[in-house]
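Reading is simple: the token line describes the chain's fold. The lines below illustrate.

. . .
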Amino acid sequence: MVYITSWDEFVERSVQLFRADPNSTRYAMKYRHSEGKLVLKVTDNIQCLKFKTDQTQDAKKMEKLNNIFFTLMARGPDADISEVTGKEQMETQATKRGRGRKQ
């Protein structure tokens, strides 16, 4: 069980672990409201990677990691994850118009 302190290293090693053995790799998260801590865990039953944080800004990072894993699971382990970024999604949401009154 390895706690990784760097977020970028955790994401990189997690993706490598998934691509090495996609059938047995699991991703879990645990949030303890009383302590305000979030623990993310990626394991393939041989190697276990963990990231622990108590920062609220890391919730967006966790959302990005979820999107990366969803992409890898849906499109396969060889999928290009460079297109999975929060910036592109936020730009498309900003350009959408609501169904409100026309001006």
Remarks:
- Helices lie at 7-20, 58-75, 86-95.
